[in-house]
Structures are given as C-alpha cells and as structure tokens.
Amino acid sequence: MSKEEFQRTISNFASEGIPFVFLVDFEMEQFIVSSLKKAKKNGLFYDIKGNSNFDYTSSIKENKIAVIKTIDKRTYQKAFDLVQKNIIHGNSYLLNLTFPTEIKTDNSLKSIFNSSKAPYKLLYKDDFTLFSPECFIKIQGNHIFSYPMKGTIDATIPNAKEVLLNDKKELNEHFTIVDLIRNDLSMVSKNVTVTKFRYIDVIKAKDKQLLQASSEIKGTLDENWRNNLGNIIIKLLPAGSISGAPKRKTVEIIKQAERQKRGFYTGIFGIFDGKNLDSAVNIRFIEKVKDSFFYRSGGGITAQSDMIFEYEELKQKVYVPIS
C-alpha cells in the first residue's frame, strides 16, 4: 500500500466509523491497514490495554532469552562519535541511537506475545512482535493526546524518583522531546498545552521495576478530524520520541549512524474503534529474520551523554516483560 492509499483508506474508514488496525514502518515505506474484522486473517494480532483479538492460552511459558551477539563496542563508539559530532555542530540536540542484538529463545513470537505484559502489544505474522509501554497518539472526542517517555531509572536505587527528577541530563532530554511533540501536535491541532509534566510510571523489566518519566500533551482537533485522519497521522511521523530533534535532520543522521533500515521497529501501530483512536510507538521489539531472532533497542543521545553508559543501557533494555 502506498502512502497515498494509506491516507485515503484510513480517512475513509474513520469517516464511516469502521474499526481498523494500522501499522507503519519508521522509514515510511511500508503501510498496512486492515479492518478489525479481517485483522486475524491478515496476520495482525493486537492488544491495546486489554482490547485484543488474540486468543490467550491459560498456560504461560517463561520467556527466557539469551544474548548471542550485541553490537561490538568499537562499532557503537563510531556511531556514537558521529552523533556527538553532529550535536556539537548544532545539527541535532537529541538523537535516538538504536541497534539490533541477536538473541536465542526457545519460544515462538506467538508465545512471547502471549506471555509479555505491556499496554500496547502487536504480533505480525511470524515476522515480529512488540510489547511497548509508549503511546504515540490517542484521540478521544475532538482531543488529541501524546505521552512522550524520556528518563528511566532502576526503582531499587535509593530515592530513585528524586534522583531521576533531579538529573539534569534527563531533564534536558525530556524538555527537548516535550517541545518537539508540542510542535508536532501544533501542526494538526489547536490550543496545544502540556497538561502534565514529568510524572512517573512504574514499568516491569525482567525481575525488577523501572521508574519512567513521562509527560502529557493535549490539543484540540477540528470536528471533522475523522475525514482527515490519514493526513493527521502522516504529518506526525516519524514519532519524535524515537527519532529526535530537529526531526528531519536528525533522521538523516540516524541513517548515517545506524547504517541499516529500522523497518517496523520504532514505527507505529494503533487501532480505531469506530469513534476514538489509540496508538503506540513500536519499541520493545523482537523480529525474526530467517531462523534468527533480533531484539531492537537503543536510547537518546545528547551532548551530555556518556558512551559507556549508553552502550550498557542498550544491552540492559534487551528483555521480555513477563509476570
């Protein structure tokens, strides 16, 4: 499906009140739209906050994964240095640098989807699954919302909440992404305001919990937004929280630094229920390439970033959240 077909199909479905699920890759080269009735037939299994078309099994296997090969430190250093050089020259202020980690698992993607816990989950054929904590946009009534997540800390660290909220690097990164998302929403809505700034969510990771800083940004859409929903989504892509700022130039730098396409990783997916829309950023992502599995992860790079810390964070994010 072309971008134009995607925009037209989504707008037609939404204007007619037809529920649908959609999926877009990071490079905006692959567009998938299906009515909810045909989603299973088209290999799309979703679970958004309990609204799901997946038949869960009663027995849940533990999803242990073993790391086979992580990007080597020298290669990561080269990419990191390229990013820092561009930041120094003012080409970017924040860039989300990501790489795949080859993993081994005895479970299928379907089994991983079955047992993972997250607000936003998707299984696409036998190609990939994701279990994302991060909303892209949500539309209720005539209001559009976004909830950028930037800043994470181990909840077991003494005074973890205060440490996270007082970290200058994390604060600067959060300011940057909130400003970017605010500007993005201003392209498609009016009266854009930050209604909540840096509130804390608890996220389960492996055998521990993480604290995650998020903000809520709200705008008002035209009353006929459903007739233009396809255009609204396209204007907001790619998602700012997993690209960076300024967006267009930062995406160019990402291509130079990562030297491979992300595909559906850090793209978006969502569902329209006939009235409202909810969608996610495609992170916490496992894909199958031939007979190998790869876990995609990364983090935001700023002028204050430390290469070793960012490299270790990339590796620490390789996990499946299970209860």
Briefly, what is this?
By secondary structure, the chain is α+β, with helices and mostly antiparallel strands.
- Cα radius of gyration in angstroms: 19 Å
Described by its quaternary structure, the protein is single chain
CATH topology of the domain at 3-146 and 221-238 and 253-316: Anthranilate synthase
CATH architecture of the domain at 3-146 and 221-238 and 253-316: 4-Layer Sandwich
Specify the number of helices: 8
Distance between the termini: 37 Å
Outline the biggest β-sheet: 9 strands, antiparallel
Summarize the amount of helix as a percent range: 25-40%
Please write the string of helix (H) and strand (E) elements: HEEEEEHEHEEEEEHHEEHEHEEEEH
CATH top level assignment of the domain at 3-146 and 221-238 and 253-316: Alpha Beta
Number of strands: 18
Structural class: alpha+beta
Describe this structure in words.
With 323 residues, the chain is an alpha+beta fold. It has a domain at 3-146 and 221-238 and 253-316: Anthranilate synthase (4-Layer Sandwich). It is 28% helix and 36% strand. It is built from 8 helices and 18 strands. It has helices at residues 3-15, 73-88, 109-115, 160-165, 168-186, 229-235, 247-258, 307-316; strands at 20-24, 31-35, 44-48, 51-52, 65-69, 94-105, 120-124, 128-132, 135-140, 143-146, 149-154, 190-205, 208-220, 244-245, 268-272, 277-281, 285-289, 292-301. The strands form 2 sheets. Strands 1, 2, 9, 10, 11, 12, 13, 15 and 16 form a 9-stranded antiparallel sheet that branches. Strands 3, 4, 5, 6, 7, 8, 14, 17 and 18 form a 9-stranded antiparallel sheet that branches. Helix 1 (3-15) packs across helix 6 (229-235). The longest helix is centred in the middle third of the chain and has 19 residues, at 168-186. The chain starts with a helix and ends in a 7-residue tail after the last helix. The model has no long low-confidence stretch (mean pLDDT 92).
